[in-house]
Amino acid sequence: MRFIGRTKELETLRSALMDEETKAVLVIGRRRMGKTRLIKEALSGLDCTSVVYRCKEQASARSIEEISRLVTGALGPVIAFPSFEALFSYLGTFKQKIMIAIDEYQDMRMLEGTYVDSLLRNAMDDMPSNIRIVLSGSAIRVMKELEKNTNPLYGRFKATVEVGEMDYIDAAAFLPALPTRDKLMFYSVFGGVPWLLESIDGQLGVEENIIRLFVEAKGLARGYAEDVLEVECASIAYASEVFHAIRNGKKRFSDILSYIAVESGRTQLARTLKAMLEAGLLIKRHPINNDSPKATFYEVSGNAMRFYLAYQDALLDENNVNPSTVFKALIAPSVDTFASYRFEDVVRSYFKRLSLSGKREDILRIGSYWYDDRKARRNGEFDVALQLVDGSYEIYECKFLKKAATRQLIEDERSKLGGIPLVGVRRFGMVSSAGFEGEMLDDVIMLSGDDLYRLT
Length: 456
Hints:
- Helix content is 45%, strand content 17%.
- The protein is an alpha/beta fold.
């Protein structure tokens, strides 16, 4: 399988490894995000001897011996060293650069905790200049602790590379021949997890892949979601309850608090939400024209996780017999609505790409736009908003459609602007996944689903 995407991450990792002052680099990302593949791709482009060691839950002395055998075997005779110091001292006798990637590092420290960090720190402080260490791990909170000033390894990392989900453009590269609607549907359901994208059978439709990967008891996407919940939620109090609240439409702090009735009240919920944000399980959002805490809301991070939690009852019912029947009865009626909300995220990513590439240097912030007309008792939200450098806004309505948007639909959406006090809004646009009927309108920015993929 060819290496897809990760351009920025690959550049950052290679640059850090080539720097003469580098001792170690940290790579963090949930399982199945392609961390190991990224590391191997980075190492393959360097003039060095490199090895990748996959950690196990065992005593550190055993792991050090195994790392020693792996590294020395790549250089010559296999030797088992009792410590990192002895291994690094030996490796310092070689002229070539030696890159040692220690993958799933959190497993190595499972039994002995920060003691392992101390062992590695002591060895790294006197490490010969021809050695580079890459520490990689999928337990997000554990790995981020390595950067805190209370950890023995604090200050030892030249760079930290966070490997998250791919955006819709890179995700589409796994299934380049599909029509735009199918690309959008697959991204809405499976997100930007490379392992899941590789598991999609492009010869089958969206329905068949959802059944095969989510609905069936041994589905890979279903197993992925369950694994994330088991690994990341086990140590976070009330995490499951927060997920349940969000799944039932409770997204603001006060609503979540009322729904789950946390014993320790606001303080405990604040801790839980902070931990879930750090673990990459949640994202926090607020409209770009309203920074009030009351306008802040929480969402599940990642489309595959959102899909799993949205349809969890259907997927987990052991009394279901026919997966196809389950899909048609419990998922199909609302799956387009589910995808429509994810389409809004795609549009935001589109404008983010334009900004980062320099094609839209006037964009300052991207989000949604909320309005509240108390006199008329009207309030609502526009799906996507751009705050421009001059302080004005562009607002967009996003429509995930099977057929091209009609002129009447555009007029109806534009008519909603009438009478609404939209402070600072200068331009209105509409994004239709299926394109538009007829000619373009001069006073409306019109983007199709195909336009969103023309960035490449």
